[in-house]
UniProtKB/TrEMBL annotation:
EC number(s) given by UniProt: 3.5.4.29
Protein family membership: Belongs to the archaeal-type GTP cyclohydrolase family.
Keyword set, alphabetical order: GTP-binding, Hydrolase, Nucleotide-binding
Species: Halovenus carboxidivorans
Entry annotated with the keyword GTP-binding: yes
Catalytic function, reaction form: GTP + 3 H2O = 2-amino-5-formylamino-6-(5-phospho-D-ribosylamino)pyrimidin-4(3H)-one + 2 phosphate + 2 H(+)
Function text: Catalyzes the formation of 2-amino-5-formylamino-6-ribofuranosylamino-4(3H)-pyrimidinone ribonucleotide monophosphate and inorganic phosphate from GTP. Also has an independent pyrophosphate phosphohydrolase activity.
Name of the protein this chain belongs to: GTP cyclohydrolase III
Pfam families referenced in this protein's UniProt entry, alphabetically: GCH_III
Length: 253
């Protein structure tokens, strides 16, 4: 059984900050957001976690193995680097969507995202060391088949982007609705999903669903481990096996 630990990182009172005392230059906001993602990716990644940019003002991170102190350190480090602060809320559940739900509630109960008094909340309890297992995380790495030949080398970049994003939109919705799992676009033609205890037939069914709905062909490698990076690396190796065997689904265990 999986046991996913999600930490939701939310910039405090960001909406008002972007327009006070007057609207800030969009290029500066874009720069801040992409740097914040880079820093969070490294701060969480150095501790074996994964970070996803999501909407940039709300970042979803997978932090199995990080205790409360490690989350506090990340929060402090962000406050020292940026003109904004962030709140962090931790949720743990066998189902990734429920873990994120618990993390989201932790912030919502502490106040609005646009409440100037709600600052640097740290809520929720991480998994205790005794409760951790080597099967806590299931990570799937999805990839569009022959994206280069079919899209990149054939279409203009915007039409390529539409095809890839349509595949992603259908995949993320299906994984959330049918499998309680969280999928994130990570660049190129790749989507990484934090999954519930899905089996091989669930992945075949998902790939078939996306093909039928939007005519985008996927393959997927899946890994299982106690940290996101170990599971993610196993998934990448499994994806290489798909490439070698021509298979659509490979489990790394
Ligand atoms: N984030 C991320 N992006 C990747 C990774 N591998 C490839 N990409 C991106 O995906 C693009 C397409 O690469 P591939 O998926 O290898 O190419 P392809 O044409 O789809 O070929 P096949 O996957 O073998 O069917 C690359 O230009 C990268 O932007 C990865 O492991 N992580």
């Amino acid at each position: 059984m999986t046991n996913t630990q999600i930490a939701l990182i939310q910039i405090d009172n960001y909406g008002p900050w972007t327009t006070t005392p007057e609207p800030r230059r969009e290029v500066d906001l874009q720069t801040l957001q992409s740097r914040l993602y880079a820093d969070v990716s490294q701060l969480v990644g150095n501790r074996e976690g994964y970070a996803f940019f999501a909407r940039f003002d709300n970042l979803v991170t997978v932090t199995n193995g990080l205790d409360r102190e490690a989350h506090r350190l990340i929060q402090t480090s962000l406050a020292n680097r940026y003109p904004v602060t962030a709140s962090i809320s931790i949720g743990v559940d066998p189902l990734p969507i429920e873990a994120l739900g618990a993390a989201s509630r932790g912030l919502q109960e502490a106040g609005s995202a646009q409440d100037s008094k709600r600052r640097e909340i740290l809520s929720g309890e991480p998994l205790s060391e005794d409760d951790r297992t080597d099967e806590d995380l299931q990570i799937a790495h999805f990839d569009v088949n022959n994206a280069t030949e079919k899209y990149t080398d054939e279409l203009n970049e915007f039409d390529t982007f539409i095809n890839i994003e349509q595949g992603y939109a259908e995949l993320m919705r299906h994984m959330r609705m049918a499998h309680d799992s969280l999928s994130f676009f990570v660049g190129g033609d790749n989507v990484i999903a934090v999954c519930s205890g899905m089996d091989k037939s669930d992945y075949h069914e998902t790939i078939e669903h996306v093909r039928d709905a939007v005519d985008v062909d996927l393959k997927v490698g899946v890994g299982r481990a106690r940290t996101a990076q170990q599971a993610g690396m196993e998934a990448k190796h499994a994806l290489e096996e798909c490439r070698e065997n021509g298979s659509l689904v490979e489990l790394g265990w």
